[in-house]
Amino acid sequence: PGMGDKLVYIHESLNYCEGDKRRQIPSTSGRRCSRDSTKGDSCDVLCCGRGYNTQVIQQVEKCNCKFFWCCSVKCQQCDKKIEVHTCK
């Protein structure tokens, strides 16, 4: 009898939550995730139920940029605090 529209798996699927040291595949522990996302990068999905840590870091970014005729752009340096989430 034919298999029709059924999938047949020859190899067992990897558990990316735990990783596989033999194949040099890391677990998701320590990976950045998005707390507010509903996609594959969300902390709920990526952290495999282990939860996540939140750290506030400070970055310096260009801001208040102005274009001067002709042809330069001058910007200020602004401090910005962002939250970074990483899987436990």
Overview of this protein structure:
This protein is mainly β. The protein has a domain at 32-87: 2-Layer Sandwich (Endo-n-acetylneuraminidase fold), CATH 3.30.2460. The protein is built from 1 helix and 3 strands; from the N terminus they run βαββ. Strands 1-3-2 form a 3-stranded antiparallel beta sheet, with no helix packed on it. A hairpin with a 3-residue loop joins strand 2 and strand 3. The chain starts with 31 loop residues before the first strand and ends with a strand.
Coarse morphology? elongated
* Beta strand %: 35-45%
Biggest β-sheet strands, sense, barrel: 3 strands, antiparallel
Rg computed from alpha carbons, rounded to a whole number of angstroms = 22 Å
Number of helices: 1
The name CATH uses for the topology of the domain at 32-87 is Endo-n-acetylneuraminidase fold
Which architecture name of the domain at 32-87 does CATH use?
2-Layer Sandwich
Query: How far do the termini sit from each other?
Result: 47 Å
Q: Please identify the top-level CATH class of the domain at 32-87.
A: Alpha Beta
Name the CATH superfamily assignment of the domain at 32-87.
Wnt (Wingless and Int-1), C-terminal domain
Spans of at least 5 consecutive residues whose pLDDT stays below 50 are: none
**Helicity level, as a percent range?**
under 10%
Order of helices and strands: EHEE
Which strands sit side by side, in order, in the main sheet? 1-3-2
Mean pLDDT: 86
Give me the secondary-structure category.
Answer: mainly beta
> How many strand segments?
3
